[in-house]
Amino acid sequence: MLLFRAATAKDVQPILDLWDAARSDHAETPDTKEAIHRLLDTDPGSLLVADDGEVIGALIAAFDGWRGNMYRLAVRPDRRREGIASRLVQHGEARLTALGAPKATALVGRGDEQAEALWRAAGYRDDADIGRWVRSF
């Protein structure tokens, strides 16, 4: 049975393994145990997993008090095309709506056709008027 739930500390290594197996060429930020533990401590419930006895999907759905942000969506490559990513997005949206988010932003790598198609199918649009400016620390 497929369960969608908030991640816990016991999920940290399986999530890292998932993100490693499903990592997009657009991903730049290193994934670490410390980063996931910090997320679990500072925003409990924001890291969602799809679990069928093991972690097969994950999504961060965080709310900053202004808008919802979804990123790090991943599904194990051998379990794609089963609707798992779409269901994770639905659970992320439900979480963000419950927290009062009036809208959500999805971080999607430009040119990642598979990811762009998924988010488009979920009802999101590419906001070409707003750019994302980043700086790493």
Report on this model:
With 137 residues, this protein is α+β, with helices and mostly antiparallel strands. It has a single domain (3-121), classed as 3-Layer(aba) Sandwich (Aminopeptidase), CATH 3.40.630.30. The chain contains four helices and five strands; from the N terminus they run βααβββαβα. It has helices at residues 12-22, 33-42, 84-98, 113-121; strands spanning 3-6, 47-51, 55-63, 68-75, 104-106. Strands 1-2-3-4-5 form a five-stranded mixed sheet. A hairpin with a 3-residue loop joins β2 (47-51) and β3 (55-63). It is globular and about 40 Å long. The model has no long low-confidence stretch (mean pLDDT 92).
List keywords for this structure.
globular; single chain; 4 helices; alpha+beta; 137 residues; five-stranded mixed sheet
Number of strands: 5
The chain-level structural class is alpha+beta
The sequence of SSEs as H and E is EHHEEEHEH
Assigned CATH class = Alpha Beta
Nearest-angstrom radius of gyration?
Answer: 14 Å
Mean pLDDT: 92
Which word captures the global form? globular
Percent helix: 25-40%
